[in-house]
Specification:
With 282 residues, the protein is an alpha/beta fold. It is built from 11 helices and 11 strands. Helix 7 packs across helix 8 and helix 10 runs antiparallel to helix 11. Bound molecules: adenosine monophosphate. Adenosine monophosphate (AMP) binds next to helix 2 and strand 5.
Length: 282
């Protein structure tokens, strides 16, 4: 694995590789890597790409400064795991490499409705930050394929929108959510759960499964009320539990039994905010 810290050196190297016929697969991360991240690396590798992983804790996407300060950093272990998984290139930029002009006057991306609901509503500015870092990383790496996790369902939609805005031909791959044996979606933030909360955290997965098993055509509001109560019972402070159209994220208040729908939730256990989602009819 080759480690790059400078954007221009990485761009030069990747261009040479592309001229030599390689396809470039890109997996952006914020580090504190787990099997979820590594599954994306594996998929890129299996597709015979030259696989580039970035680790950059992007300051502009944290709406909560405490979350930013407490974001776990495990860089030595990350390097070991990436190398073991066959990653070709690790990009480890400084803030200056990503934001050479600082972060004061950043470009605004027109995300429309997507930015006003769910994560967009509860984390103002978050998706602008995601687009800012992704825009820069995609310009540096110029990948053929981009691999991101369904775990961050709305983020996948936002980045697909960014690719449209950029008129990009990059092929976007939404990859399955990797889970712990009890069903908890793997997340770097799980490391911050204390032992008691770690046991309770499976409540999110159980609630999503409950929705999947019990969803019926018609009005969905009482089903959602039950889901909120299930989480509250396990001491979650719920930001949202919603069922939405899987393609647009428009809320699905009524379900006709045909429309593809997804349940999405975000909830706190003490200070730790967890998100997860599940397609309900697949
Ligand atoms: P992050 O480091 O949290 O920014 O995540 C980097 C990438 O890994 C994003 O595309 C995430 O959606 C993806 N990811 C995070 N957790 C999982 C998971 N449990 N399963 C699959 N992909 C994941």
């Amino acid at each position: 694995m080759i480690l790059f810290k400078r954007a221009n050196e990485l761009t030069d190297y990747i261009r040479q590789q592309r001229s030599a016929g390689r396809k470039i697969g890109f997996v952006p991360t914020m580090g504190a890597l787990h099997q979820g991240h590594l599954s994306l690396i594996e998929i890129s590798g299996k597709n015979k790409n030259l696989t580039v992983c970035s680790i950059f804790i992007n300051p502009t996407q944290f709406n909560d400064p405490k979350d930013f300060q407490k974001y776990p950093i495990t860089i030595e272990k990350d390097i070991y795991l990436l190398e073991k998984k066959g990653t070709d290139i690790l990009f480890l930029p400084s803030d200056e490499e990503i934001y050479p002009g600082g972060t004061a006057n950043m470009q605004h991306f027109e995300l429309g409705y997507l930015e006003t609901v769910l994560e967009g509503k509860y984390r103002p500015g978050h998706f602008q930050g995601v687009c800012q870092v992704m825009h820069r990383l995609l310009r540096i790496i110029e990948p053929d394929h981009l691999y991101m996790g369904q775990k961050d369902y709305q983020q996948c939609m936002v980045v697909k929108r960014l690719l449209q805005i950029m008129q990009s031909e990059i092929i976007f791959h939404t990859c399955d959510t990797m889970r712990e044996p009890d069903g908890l979606a793997m997340s770097s933030r799980n490391k911050r759960l204390n032992d008691v909360d770690r046991k309770k955290a499976v409540g999110i997965f159980e609630t999503l499964l409950y929705l999947k098993k019990n969803v019926r055509p018609g009005d969905l509001s009482s089903l959602l009320d039950t889901a909120r109560a299930m989480l509250a019972e396990k001491d979650f402070k719920v930001d949202y539990v919603e069922i939405a159209d899987a393609e647009t994220l428009e809320p699905a208040h009524q379900w006709n039994g045909q429309q593809k729908i997804v349940a999405l939730t975000a909830a706190f256990l003490n200070e730790v905010r967890l998100i997860d989602n599940m397609i309900l009819n697949s």
